[in-house]
Amino acid sequence: MSDPGEMRISDADREAAAQRLHTAMGEGRITLAELEERLDAVYAAKTYSELRPPLADLPGAGEVVPMASATPAERAEPLQLRTDMGSLKREGDWRVPASLRLTSGMGSIHLDLTQATSVPNRIDVEVSVGMGEILIIVPEGATANVDGVRGSWGDIKSKVGSIPGGGPHLTVTGKAGMGSLTIRGPRTGWKAMFGT
């Protein structure tokens, strides 16, 4: 099996790494000069092994750059879920892949990750929403970056943090036309009882 570190990275991987560097500068961990130098390295990187050094001495680097446990096969073939006018749901006990491609024309896709058997530390999600709806419910402590989603008339909402922490992190890219994309955590208390 080939070295996972030699896997080619995507634009979303570079943007996630760049965001972590900007956050690090805001936290006072690196200087502006260091930020510029490291950003040059991030945008020049072609593989995961080249992407790791600029982040190696920063907290949460392992959440931004996938570790060797993610095999090439897991990242090469995303799970594709598509609905034109109907509804599609995944909930309960299921295995969440490291890469998802979600397409909703006028229908709805609801994914609940809160009771899933296996949830990777890093999940790449590519969305395409026409006039439909995509809802992703993530476990407590999960984060999501939706900056890579282009919107026109639609709504793009993330109700969880965007900086990778100790839980799963979703990097979401794609487009939302006139529909909606929502990422939120599990309902608790009265919200869970009444579904609001």
UniProtKB/TrEMBL annotation:
Q: Which Pfam families match?
A: DUF1707
Q: Where is the DUF1707 domain?
A: 7-59
* Full protein name: Uncharacterized protein DUF1707
- Organism equals Pseudonocardia endophytica
